[in-house]
Automatic annotation (TrEMBL):
InterPro entries: ArsR-like_HTH, HTH_ArsR_DNA-bd_dom, Metal_resp_trans_reg, WH-like_DNA-bd_sf, WH_DNA-bd_sf. This is ArsR/SmtB family transcription factor. CDD domains: HTH_ARSR. The keyword Ligase does not apply. It comes from the Bacteria.
Amino acid sequence: METNQVITALTALGHATRLAIFRLLVEAGPDGRMAGEIGEALAVPGATLSFHLKELVHAGLISSESRGRNVCYRANFDAMNVLVAYLTHNCCAGSSDTSCSPGVATARAC
């Protein structure tokens, strides 16, 4: 992952509403959630929700799929895992203690 992509992703997640949306979609798993469901769950008005969803799509953290007049959004788990790997690439570098390294099994359990 390029540094600029990481900055874009972290900037997108640096807003409370976008972080909540992303976490909700991670929780939903591969089935995702419809835009209306996301708005209801987080009490975010439609226009505001649309703006935040667009930012997350632009950052590559979520994807969208049209279903008639509705849109389903899903977390991009590959992008999430690449971002975590980038952030922890040199975790505990030079140390023989691996207890600080992130749990790969935890990420895969998603």
